[in-house]
From TrEMBL:
It holds the Pfam family adh_short. It comes from Oppiella nova. Belongs to the short-chain dehydrogenases/reductases (SDR) family. This is Uncharacterized protein. PANTHER family: EG:BACR7A4.14 PROTEIN-RELATED (PTHR43975:SF2), ZGC:101858 (PTHR43975). It comes from the Eukaryota. InterPro entries: Cyt_P450_CS, Cyt_P450_sf, NAD(P)-bd_dom_sf, Sc_DH/Rdtase_CS, SDR_fam.
Length: 304
């Protein structure tokens, strides 16, 4: 399946662009119409090769080395991005240093510090200096994590700890920056051990997600105000999925929403609805496998 995205007019800043995953990410953003900033630790051939590949798609590209262990370099990277493109829509935090060491090796502490610095602290600093720009574009942050954040491995404790911290950092930032309109997600790379065979149907329990009080307080109360502009930025990504999400979401989402609004506007202009003795308060829902609908809906109707 090939999926195409349109990122025309957007600016994607990709760090760690000497690593394979960041390289593919940068090229895909370029192919999808975004202007791309590719940054790696060193100004070497690999960085230029990635930048040229992005340029070959017709994208505007800024190529800049920035050492993730030096905050001054990272600040220059963000400043240069702003003077060149004037905005940042997507920040891909992908600094990677992977140094294995057993806890008893004399070099352990040095390798631990290096790993934390390049993998974790650079990400924290980049996030902190990009928030003001991402807030203006209601942008998004993607943090590269790894299956190592959840699965332990001998001699990889520093890397595992860094990735585990990235996962929690991402969750904290999603709650902290969500109200500013900035979405924060991580990508957990590596073998999850979960294999979905071709043809297997995966069911997402939307009813349960939509009625989870952690996400929607007092979930059974009819409260359309939850979705008003003041409140909707507080909704966590992927907790409200009436039309699904991702490349196979409902193709008619906007049409269906518009249609529903028109129907409501049309009928409420002509009729007035009111509660009668048989009206169920609250409404009783039948919980079926794939649908949730009112058991019965008895209301009085007056022609206006
Ligand atoms: C309020 C009305 C509607 C709701 C709540 C709704 C919801 C959904 C959901 C949940 C999915 C699955 C998304 C996923 O798997 O991630 C879907 C898919 C789809 N919907 Fe709707 N839908 C609505 C109206 C419509 C209408 C009016 C049409 C056509 C005119 C339509 C066409 C489709 C199609 C073609 C898909 C499959 C897309 C794909 O697999 O690539 N839907 N819809």
């Amino acid at each position: 399946m090939s999926v195409s995205y349109d990122f025309s007019g957007k600016v994607a800043l990709v760090t760690g662009a000497n690593t394979r995953v960041a390289v593919s990410t940068a090229i895909l953003f370029a192919k999808s119409g975004a202007s791309v900033v590719v940054s790696g630790q060193y100004a070497d051939n690999r960085l230029t090769t990635v930048a040229n590949e992005c340029r070959s798609t017709g994208a505007q590209v800024l190529e800049m080395a920035a050492d993730p262990t030096r905050e001054a370099d990272l600040q220059k990277l963000v400043d240069k991005t702003m003077t060149t493109f004037g905005r940042i829509d997507i920040l891909v935090n992908c600094p990677v240093s992977h140094e294995n060491a057993s806890i008893t090796e004399p070099s352990f502490m040095a390798k631990y510090r290096e790993t934390m610095h390049t993998n974790l602290e650079a990400m924290l600093f980049m996030t902190s200096i990009c928030v003001e720009h991402l807030e203006k574009t209601r942008g998004t942050i993607i943090n590269m994590s790894s299956i190592r954040g959840a699965h332990a491995s001998p001699k990889e404790s520093a890397y595992c700890m860094a990735k585990s911290a990235i996962d929690m950092f991402t969750k904290c930032m999603a709650t902290e920056l969500g109200p500013k309109g900035i979405r924060v997600n991580n990508v957990m790379l590596g073998n999850t051990g979960v294999k979905i065979e071709k043809g297997v149907i995966v069911d997402i329990p939307i009813y349960a997600i939509h009625h989870d009080p952690d996400h929607f307080p007092d979930p059974f109360t009819f409260s359309p105000d939850r979705f008003m502009p003041d409140n909707r930025d507080h909704i966590q990504p992927y907790t409200y999925l009436p039309f699904g999400s991702g490349p196979r979401n409902c193709i008619a989402m906007r049409f269906a929403l518009l249609e529903a609004k028109l129907v409501l506007a049309e009928i409420s202009q002509k009729f007035r609805f009111f509660r009668v003795t048989d009206t169920d308060v609250p409404i009783v829902f039948t919980k079926e496998f794939s649908r949730c609908q009112a058991k019965r809906l008895v209301v009085g109707i007056h022609k206006r």
